[in-house]
Every structure is written in C-alpha cells, then in structure tokens.
Design brief:
- There is one protein chain.
- The mean pLDDT is 95.
- Strand 6 and strand 7 form a beta hairpin.
- It contains 9 helices and 7 strands; from the N terminus they run H-H-H-E-H-E-H-E-E-H-E-H-H-E-E-H.
- Strands 3-2-1-4-5-7-6 form a 7-stranded mixed beta sheet, sandwiched between helices.
- The chain has a single domain, classed as Rossmann fold.
- It is α/β, with parallel strands linked by helices.
- Helix 2 packs antiparallel against helix 5.
C-alpha cells in the first residue's frame, strides 16, 4: 500500500517521507481501535481508509495552494480533511471544531500520538468567535451546501476561500445555495471534479469577497429549518 499511496499522491504533486507515511498508518490504527467503541467511520479496510479518507482529504490541493494559512475545519468528525493535511503540510495553522466531545477526545489522543499541533474546540461552529478570520474553511461530509454556507462563510476572511467536499448531488446543492452565498459575502469560484476509487467527487470553491453581516450565522435550528 505504501508504494500505491505514494504514487497516488504524485497526482497531487505531493511527496511524503517514510516518517509521514508511518503517521498515516498510526492514524489508521487508532481510528480502527477507537471505532470499536464509538462511531467514527463506516470505512475500516486499510486500503479503503487510505483512498477514501486520506487521499480524498489531500485532494483539497486540487483547488487551493497550501502555504502557512489559517484553516478552520468545520464538523471534522474523525479528522478529515484537516489531520491528513496537517501531516503533509506541517506549517498549516489548523483549528478543528466539532459538536461531539467524544470526537474531540479522539482527535486529542490522535494529535498527541502523531505529535502534531492542532487547535481542538468542542462546540458549535455558529458560536465560534473568530469571524471573518480564516484563510480557508473546509467542510467534508457534514451537511447540505445551503446549510454549510451559513456555517462556514461567516468565519472565512475576505480574500479567503470556503471549500466544500461534495458528492454526486453537488450541482443541485450549489443551485440551492446561490442566495446564501451572495447574502453572506461569497462568490462562487469553481467546481473541481475528481474520482476516488471510481466514485465521483467535487470540490466546491467559494471566494469570500465581502465581510459577513453580524447577524449570521443564526442558531442552528433556524439555519436548518429556514435556510437562506
């Protein structure tokens, strides 16, 4: 798997050392161990995790050049895409926010084992204080884009990017999100299509062009019941 993973990463212009590959193996082992007692992922096969979680997370570089930016990962779950990104791009300043404390505990154990420095916050992103602050805000497999836009764009700085990892329904989701994107100070940039294990994936990239009004994001119940 090592040679295959390294070969796949060449497609992303990524080269990893043996030490970094070993960190991915440690990540996998801890993920599977903790997954026995809490629901972190339905994907547990070694090769599948490397393909569908690790490689997919690193596909962010298809749309964004990474270099020392502040990145907020919203609803990171088991640490995707932020932890694979931090393993490869050590100079990223990463903050992870997740509403479930047990996932934060897993990430705390994981980052200590990997000896990487990541800011972990247990809470709801709509209550986060650092508005119009981050160079990049990511969300992967969290919610529909219309909801994610209100959860993520307010924390993206002007000149920064909100990137949503999406699947086959991305075209419909983007169409339904046009009003929210404009209202929150964003502008649709592009969609980058790619395949992971013969499954179609999409990176939806939204530029932040104006500061978001202070009334957003609203409380989550309103975001979900009456999306913008």
């Amino acid at each position: 798997m090592k040679a295959k993973f390294q070969e796949m990463l060449k497609d992303l212009d990524i080269s990893i050392t043996d030490e970094k590959y070993d960190k991915f193996v440690i990540f996998y082992e801890l993920l599977v161990e903790w997954n026995k007692k809490m629901n972190l992922t339905s994907i547990t096969n070694f090769e599948d995790v490397f393909m569908k979680h690790f490689y997919d997370s690193l596909c962010l570089v298809k749309g964004v050049k990474l270099n020392k930016q502040r990145l907020l990962d919203v609803g990171s779950g088991a640490g995707f895409p932020s932890i694979p990104l931090k393993i490869v791009y050590e100079d990223l300043d990463i903050t992870i926010i997740d509403s479930l404390n047990k996932r934060i505990k897993f990430l705390d154990a994981l980052t200590k084992m990997l000896n990487i420095d990541v800011r972990l916050i247990h809470g709801r992103v709509e209550e986060h204080k650092f508005r119009n602050h981050y160079d990049i805000v990511t969300a992967r497999a969290v919610s529909k884009l219309q909801v994610l836009t209100e959860l993520c764009l307010p924390f993206t700085k002007v000149g920064g990017k909100f990137v949503a990892f999406k699947g086959p329904k991305h075209i419909e989701e983007l169409e339904n999100s046009k009003n929210a994107i404009e209202l929150l100070g964003g502008k649709y940039n592009k969609t980058i299509m790619y395949d992971v294990d013969n499954q179609s994936r999409a990176l939806i990239i939204i530029d932040k062009i104006e500061s978001t009004d202070k009334q957003y994001p609203r409380v989550y119940s309103k975001i979900k019941s009456t999306p913008l």
